[in-house]
Structure formats: C-alpha cells, structure tokens
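User: I'm writing a short report section on ligand binding and want a predicted complex to refer to. Could you take this sequence and zinc ion and write out the structure as tokens? A short remark afterwards would be nice.
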Amino acid sequence: MTTLWPTELWRLRLSRGLSRSPEETAAMTARFRPLFRWCCICCLVSLWAAAAAAEQEPDADDRITQVSVINALMLGRYDGTVALSDLLAVGDFGLGTLDRLDGELIVLEGIAYQVRATGAVIEVDPETTSPFAVVTRFGADGELACPEGASLEALDRFLDDKILERNNFVAIRIEAELATAVLRSVAAQERPYRPLAEVAKSQPVWRHERMRGTLVGIRSPQWTEGIAVPGYHWHFLSADRRVGGHLLECTVRTGTIRYDICGDWTVKLDQSRGFNAPDLGTDLRDQVEGVETRRGVPK
Ligand SMILES: [Zn+2]
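Assistant: Sure. The structure tokens for the complex follow:
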C-alpha cells in the first residue's frame, strides 16, 4: 500500500472537492497515530515533571519572616526598618513592636494592631514601620485542648511536651478564656535610645480578669540565641479588640491551641550603617529573658 503524506492527502482532498474516501481516512489515521501517541507521552511526562517540581518547592505558607535580630532591639535599635504593608504581604499572624518602640504589635487574621502605652488598641497604618517583628501565614498543622487552670509557665511546659519540633519555629494560636491576664506595653522612645532592659523597668503593666481572646505566640528554637527570642514569646488580643499587649502571666480557664510548624526562616537585616555599630555578638541572654520571656508580674 502506498503511504500518502499529509500534504499529498490535502492536495487529493482539494482536487476532489474536499471529499475524503475511506481509504484516505484510514491512511491519514494510520499516519498520525504514532504522532498522537508521542504527543500524549510528552504531555504526561511534562505533567509529572511539573508535579514533582511543585512538591520540592518550599511551601510559602511554611515561611516565618523576622525583622532584624533581638540583640539589635536589646541594644536600642528602635527605628523601624520594614513597613507593616511589607510584613502583611508575607504573614497574617505574628508579633513584635513598632517604630521607636511605640507599643506592642499583634498581627492577627491579616490585621496589625498596636497596643499603646496607654493601653489603647488601634489598627496600625500600613506605612508604619517595625524594628523587630516575626510573622507567618498561619496554617494549622495540629490542634490541642488547653490544659484547664494552667499558668503561662505550665502552658509553655505543656506545649514543650506536645510539640516536639524543638529545632523549628512554631507559631501558636490559642483561642482562650482567661481567668486572669497580666499584660504590658512600652512607650515610644526618644533619641538617644536607652537599652531595652532599662526601658522595660518603667513599662506600664495591667491586670485583667475574665478575658476572652487570642494568645499569639511564637516559639523559637534555643539555637537562635542573640537572633530571635528563644522559647515562648506571647502577645494577647481580646476578642473585642480593645485590650492587648505582651503577655507576662495568665491563668487559662479553657482554650483551643492550634499550631503551625515553620521550617523556612527569613531574617530581614537593617541595611543602614548604624546597624553595624553595636556588637550584636554580645551575650544578652539574661536581658532577653528578663524582658521577653520571664513569667509573672515584674517587681
Ligand atoms: Zn513581646
């Protein structure tokens, strides 16, 4: 049987008024079948390669983004370097402080709140900058019931026992009813800036009873000493968004814990010259613990 090339078939079809005989159709089908098969194989291989590549790509939701390093904040680097709009583009959950150390920052459900030294809670202008913050796009990896009657220290220990990824960052969101809560904020600072340990001595502290709201927590690994706040760092925002701050102590009545293990850490360093002036390698462990992770009401 003579093999007809497609161009010849078209020529034949044109000369016969575009009508196609059964022989021509059979020849055409036979001619194109291998090509069709080859195309199918190529498509399947491409789809498989794309799926494999997507699997290997880091999950954007697994990323935790930090502004500056804790030792820089401890040593008085209070000028904001990253706009809240940029932080909210990479995270909808987190905590930190604001330009000139003007209060406590809480990022919850994509909204940034500032707890001022007066205790007032306001939504932050997206142009406002932060000198230190940690945010992630929260997606729960697990859920736990809160131990009833737990203090903040007991809650830390409970989470240590339940979430074993101690060398990863963990974002922790707790919807809770608190029997008591001790909160603090800090006032905006004027230049020349004093070290944070000194500023914290005059921080306003409030005690509340029967509060419903959200504990926004970040657990950083011990190996981040000098860079992040090792251990648990908790901020709180009430359900009515009228009370909040850095959480110093609490007693949990009931609550639900959801946690997000983050394995992709990004640190945005200050690009200004002043950032390189203090020695950020200084051991400030005691001061970081005193300001950020110590439990109880300060004397
Ligand atoms: Zn704090």
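A remark for your report: The chain has a mean pLDDT of 88. Residues 22-56 form the longest helix (35 residues).
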